[in-house]
Design a protein that fits this description.
The protein is of the alpha+beta class. The protein folds into two domains: 2-101, Arc Repressor Mutant, subunit A (Orthogonal Bundle); 104-193, Arc Repressor Mutant, subunit A. Helices cover 48% and strands 13% of the residues. The chain contains ten helices and six strands, in the order ααβααββαααβααββα. The chain has helices at 2-11, 18-30, 41-46, 53-61, 82-85, 91-102, 115-126, 138-145, 149-161, 187-193, and strands at 36-40, 69-71, 74-78, 135-137, 167-171, 176-180. The strands form two sheets. The protein has a three-stranded antiparallel sheet. Helix 2 (18-30) packs across helix 4, helix 2 (18-30) packs antiparallel against helix 6 and helix 7 crosses helix 9. The protein is globular and about 50 Å long. It starts with a helix and ends with a helix. Mean pLDDT is 85; it is low at 188-194.
Length: 194
């Protein structure tokens, strides 16, 4: 997941909205080997992105996809970035990743949560596999979210307030941000058990 988030942080302009990034993520993961993607209305409705034509336009204006064709029950688009066509994992693996991205354990938020919060939770959850203690470079995490570091800090506060994260801490000297997932054992216990 972090690979596709990294790809999108490079392929999309910095000012791309979090909702457009979430849409681009689903498009990239669900596209076929020719870059064509069809997203059903039910999926878009579940993501709170149904009839959000401005998001498709935002991605089209960035040169990332052709303006979508609107058909009853679906939205179809052609992705223009050749990098999407060279994705290594097979389509079934990417579809599972696309499903996981909708509810990224262990940081699941309601679909009604703002896109910026859902994207931040997804980025943090994508670090879980490689860093179960929840750590990352603040600049890198911010880049994956499409935010500035200050916005990322504010969103981390909101995730704690929503009890999606237990806590987070920023180490200014190393620019590292640490976070604790809910029900994660204390660091001293985790170290002792290893």
């Amino acid at each position: 997941m972090r690979e596709i988030l990294t790809y999108l942080s490079a392929a999309l302009p910095q000012f791309t909205s979090p909702a457009a990034r979430m849409l681009a993520l689903q498009c990239a993961l669900r596209s076929n080997n020719r870059g064509h993607v069809t997203l059903p209305d039910g999926l878009l409705r579940g993501m709170r992105l149904q009839r959000r034509w401005e998001l498709w336009l935002e991605l089209a204006q960035a040169g990332w996809l052709q303006a979508p064709s609107i058909q009853p029950g679906t939205m179809s688009a052609q992705l223009l970035d050749a990098t999407v066509l060279d994705q290594a994992p097979g389509r079934s693996v990417r579809r599972r990743a696309a499903q996981w991205a909708l509810r990224p354990a262990p940081l699941v938020l309601p679909a009604a949560a703002p896109a910026a919060l859902r994207l931040t939770a997804l980025v943090l959850a994508s670090h879980f596999v490689s860093s179960p203690n929840g750590a990352g470079d603040l600049a890198a995490v911010s880049r994956l979210c499409g935010h500035c570091p200050q916005q990322t800090k504010e969103l981390l506060d909101r995730l704690v307030s929503a009890r999606t994260l237990e806590s987070w801490h920023y180490h200014q000297g190393t620019d590292e941000v640490l976070w604790r997932f809910p029900q994660q054992p204390p660091a001293s216990t985790a170290t002792r058990d290893s």
